[in-house]
Write a structure and sequence with these properties.
mainly alpha; elongated; single chain; 102 residues; 5 helices
Amino acid sequence: MAAGDPVEAVVPAWWQQMLTSQRREAQRILAELVAVRGLMPLLMKARNGGHWTPEEKEEIVSHLRRMAHLSPYLIALMLPGSVFLLPAYAWWLDRRRLNRQD
């Protein structure tokens, strides 16, 4: 929506903020997924009879860590009505963090 658009006046500010943050997170997830692009050929190297070098093993570990950090986002964004579930999801994450005895 462009500034001064008549539809912008109708949509509440909190809704615009929610949509903006959802778009920002979607772009972040896409950037992370693009960064993991070379993982599959690297994983298939061992399956095809090759051996991983220590540098390739480090690269695989970094890719897997990247993907592990994204998995909660992907689950929440793939659910129908995920925008409405985000407050419950945030509450659940906060409770899980508080119950840990690290």
